[in-house]
Amino acid sequence: MLREFFTQVKRHHGITGKEISELTGISQNHISEYLHGKRDVTSDVLWRMIEAMDEISPGARRDLAKKIAGDRPEITYEELDEDELAEEMIKMGRAWKTIRSKKLINVN
Predict the structure, then answer these.
(1) Is 62 in contact with 84 (CB distance < 8 Å)?
(2) What's the confidence (pLDDT) of residue 85?
(3) Residues 75, 71: Cα–Cα separation, whole Å
(4) How many CB atoms lie within 10 A of CB 48?
(5) Which of 37, 55, 79, 90 is the most exposed place for a label (fewest CB within 10 A)?
(6) Tell me: the pLDDT tens digits for 17-54?
């Protein structure tokens, strides 16, 4: 699910894996394997990729957070600082982990 959201935002903002790779030092191959479900990434690597997307196209991080949170209207992402946005992403990560452990979604 997170991979799909990441890919959707990346495409919407016209961001390439090459651009992310150049900013993060993460190989294009590693990024591609993650996005195609062939490899997992650590939260640190994922965060670096998200930050790179936002540097390339400001607003990409906010758009990803909106997708993850399901565009909940009570959250105004534009008003969140970096720590608050990170908290929202962590909450979604925990929810996703619970769903995954209950095998309610296919993560492969």
Answers:
(1) no
(2) 77
(3) 8
(4) 17
(5) 79
(6) 999 999 999 999 999 998 888 988 888 888 899 999 99
**What is the pLDDT, as a whole number, of residue 100?**
61
For 75, 81, 84, 91, 98, the CA distances from 16, given in Å and listed in that order, are 28, 26, 27, 27, 31
Measured distance CA(52)–CA(33) in Å, rounded:
18
Q: Classify residue 94 by its DSSP letter.
A: H
Q: Please identify which residue in the block is written with the tokens 């992402």.
A: 77
CA distance 52 to 20: 6
- Which tens digit of pLDDT belongs to each residue from 80-97? 777 877 877 787 777 767
Residues 47, 55 contacting (CB under 8 angstroms): no
Instruction: State the distance between the two ends of the chain, measured CA to CA, in whole angstroms.
Output: 10
- pLDDT of 92 reads 73
> Domains, the chain, ranges and CATH?
2-101 (1.10.260.40)
